[in-house]
Specification:
165 residues; alpha+beta; Alpha-Beta Plaits; 5-stranded antiparallel beta sheet; 6 helices; 5 strands; ribosomal protein; Ribosomal_uL10; rRNA-binding
Length: 165
Protein backbone atom coordinates (compact mmCIF):
# COMPACT_ATOMS: atom_id res chain seq x y z
CA UNK A 1 0.00 0.00 0.00
CA UNK A 2 1.46 3.33 -1.06
CA UNK A 3 1.67 6.10 1.50
CA UNK A 4 0.49 9.58 0.69
CA UNK A 5 2.59 12.61 1.58
CA UNK A 6 0.88 13.17 4.93
CA UNK A 7 1.38 9.52 5.93
CA UNK A 8 5.05 9.72 4.99
CA UNK A 9 5.48 12.88 7.09
CA UNK A 10 3.80 11.14 10.03
CA UNK A 11 6.10 8.11 9.72
CA UNK A 12 9.20 10.31 9.54
CA UNK A 13 8.01 12.31 12.57
CA UNK A 14 7.35 9.13 14.59
CA UNK A 15 10.72 7.60 13.74
CA UNK A 16 12.51 10.92 14.33
CA UNK A 17 10.99 11.10 17.80
CA UNK A 18 12.29 7.59 18.61
CA UNK A 19 15.71 8.41 17.18
CA UNK A 20 16.04 11.64 19.16
CA UNK A 21 16.05 9.63 22.42
CA UNK A 22 17.95 6.62 21.06
CA UNK A 23 21.51 5.57 21.78
CA UNK A 24 21.68 2.74 19.26
CA UNK A 25 20.26 1.83 15.85
CA UNK A 26 20.80 -1.57 14.26
CA UNK A 27 19.94 -2.47 10.65
CA UNK A 28 19.21 -6.01 9.50
CA UNK A 29 18.08 -7.52 6.21
CA UNK A 30 14.95 -9.58 6.56
CA UNK A 31 14.59 -11.03 3.06
CA UNK A 32 12.48 -14.22 3.11
CA UNK A 33 11.56 -14.15 6.79
CA UNK A 34 8.10 -15.54 7.56
CA UNK A 35 5.33 -13.48 9.15
CA UNK A 36 5.31 -15.77 12.18
CA UNK A 37 9.04 -15.30 12.75
CA UNK A 38 8.70 -11.54 12.31
CA UNK A 39 5.93 -11.54 14.92
CA UNK A 40 8.20 -13.41 17.36
CA UNK A 41 10.98 -10.90 16.70
CA UNK A 42 8.63 -7.98 17.35
CA UNK A 43 7.44 -9.55 20.61
CA UNK A 44 11.02 -10.05 21.77
CA UNK A 45 11.91 -6.48 20.83
CA UNK A 46 8.89 -5.12 22.67
CA UNK A 47 9.88 -7.01 25.85
CA UNK A 48 13.37 -5.48 25.68
CA UNK A 49 12.13 -1.94 25.02
CA UNK A 50 13.38 -1.89 21.43
CA UNK A 51 11.44 0.02 18.77
CA UNK A 52 11.41 -2.31 15.76
CA UNK A 53 10.12 -1.15 12.40
CA UNK A 54 10.26 -2.05 8.73
CA UNK A 55 10.67 1.25 6.87
CA UNK A 56 11.20 2.54 3.41
CA UNK A 57 14.87 3.46 3.31
CA UNK A 58 14.14 6.95 1.96
CA UNK A 59 11.93 7.67 4.98
CA UNK A 60 14.55 6.29 7.35
CA UNK A 61 17.22 8.49 5.74
CA UNK A 62 15.03 11.53 6.29
CA UNK A 63 14.46 10.57 9.91
CA UNK A 64 18.21 10.35 10.65
CA UNK A 65 19.19 13.56 8.85
CA UNK A 66 21.12 15.91 11.15
CA UNK A 67 21.37 13.33 13.95
CA UNK A 68 24.27 11.34 15.35
CA UNK A 69 23.10 8.45 13.14
CA UNK A 70 23.38 10.32 9.82
CA UNK A 71 26.40 8.23 8.74
CA UNK A 72 24.16 5.15 8.54
CA UNK A 73 22.46 6.51 5.41
CA UNK A 74 25.06 4.81 3.18
CA UNK A 75 24.14 1.41 4.67
CA UNK A 76 20.41 1.79 4.03
CA UNK A 77 19.87 -0.38 0.97
CA UNK A 78 17.68 -3.42 0.47
CA UNK A 79 14.80 -4.66 2.62
CA UNK A 80 15.74 -3.56 6.13
CA UNK A 81 14.27 -3.79 9.56
CA UNK A 82 15.38 -1.07 11.98
CA UNK A 83 15.98 -1.70 15.68
CA UNK A 84 16.12 1.51 17.72
CA UNK A 85 16.78 1.56 21.46
CA UNK A 86 17.50 3.92 24.31
CA UNK A 87 19.57 1.17 25.93
CA UNK A 88 22.97 1.01 24.21
CA UNK A 89 22.90 -2.79 23.97
CA UNK A 90 19.24 -3.81 23.62
CA UNK A 91 18.72 -3.35 19.85
CA UNK A 92 21.95 -5.18 19.02
CA UNK A 93 21.16 -7.99 21.48
CA UNK A 94 17.58 -8.55 20.21
CA UNK A 95 18.50 -8.65 16.52
CA UNK A 96 21.72 -10.64 17.06
CA UNK A 97 20.00 -13.25 19.23
CA UNK A 98 17.20 -13.65 16.71
CA UNK A 99 19.63 -13.93 13.77
CA UNK A 100 21.36 -16.87 15.50
CA UNK A 101 18.18 -18.92 15.21
CA UNK A 102 16.98 -17.59 11.87
CA UNK A 103 19.40 -17.41 8.94
CA UNK A 104 17.01 -15.19 6.95
CA UNK A 105 17.68 -12.25 9.28
CA UNK A 106 21.13 -10.87 8.50
CA UNK A 107 22.73 -8.14 10.59
CA UNK A 108 24.00 -5.41 8.32
CA UNK A 109 25.20 -2.39 10.30
CA UNK A 110 24.51 -0.20 13.28
CA UNK A 111 25.40 2.99 15.02
CA UNK A 112 26.20 3.68 18.63
CA UNK A 113 27.48 6.89 20.18
CA UNK A 114 27.77 8.54 16.76
CA UNK A 115 29.98 5.79 15.35
CA UNK A 116 28.93 3.51 12.51
CA UNK A 117 29.42 -0.20 13.20
CA UNK A 118 29.78 -3.12 10.83
CA UNK A 119 28.22 -6.54 11.44
CA UNK A 120 31.08 -7.74 13.66
CA UNK A 121 30.88 -4.62 15.82
CA UNK A 122 27.12 -5.05 16.25
CA UNK A 123 27.68 -8.67 17.30
CA UNK A 124 30.36 -7.56 19.77
CA UNK A 125 28.02 -4.93 21.21
CA UNK A 126 25.33 -7.60 21.62
CA UNK A 127 27.60 -9.65 23.91
CA UNK A 128 27.90 -6.82 26.45
CA UNK A 129 25.51 -7.26 29.40
CA UNK A 130 22.63 -4.79 29.42
CA UNK A 131 22.27 -2.07 32.03
CA UNK A 132 19.69 -4.12 33.92
CA UNK A 133 21.93 -7.20 33.95
CA UNK A 134 24.86 -5.14 35.26
CA UNK A 135 22.71 -3.55 37.97
CA UNK A 136 21.46 -7.00 39.04
CA UNK A 137 25.04 -8.28 39.30
CA UNK A 138 26.09 -5.21 41.29
CA UNK A 139 23.16 -5.64 43.66
CA UNK A 140 24.09 -9.31 44.13
CA UNK A 141 27.67 -8.39 45.00
CA UNK A 142 26.52 -5.71 47.42
CA UNK A 143 24.05 -8.07 49.13
CA UNK A 144 26.61 -10.83 49.51
CA UNK A 145 29.08 -8.38 51.09
CA UNK A 146 26.49 -7.08 53.54
CA UNK A 147 25.25 -10.57 54.47
CA UNK A 148 28.84 -11.77 54.92
CA UNK A 149 29.54 -8.80 57.19
CA UNK A 150 26.36 -9.51 59.17
CA UNK A 151 27.37 -13.17 59.63
CA UNK A 152 30.81 -12.11 60.84
CA UNK A 153 29.28 -9.72 63.40
CA UNK A 154 26.86 -12.43 64.59
CA UNK A 155 29.73 -14.92 64.96
CA UNK A 156 31.75 -12.36 66.89
CA UNK A 157 28.78 -11.65 69.19
CA UNK A 158 28.32 -15.37 69.86
CA UNK A 159 32.01 -15.73 70.65
CA UNK A 160 31.89 -12.82 73.11
CA UNK A 161 28.79 -14.29 74.80
CA UNK A 162 30.52 -17.69 75.06
CA UNK A 163 33.57 -16.04 76.68
CA UNK A 164 31.38 -14.18 79.18
CA UNK A 165 29.51 -17.36 80.15
Amino acid sequence: MALNLEDKKAVVAEVSAKISAAQTIVLAEYRGITVGDLTKLRASACQQGVYLRVLKNTLARRAIENTQFADLADQMTGPLIYGISNDPVAAAKVLNDFSKGNDKLILKAGSYDGKTMDKASVQALATIPSRDELLAKLLGVMQSSVSGFARAIAALAEKKQAEVA
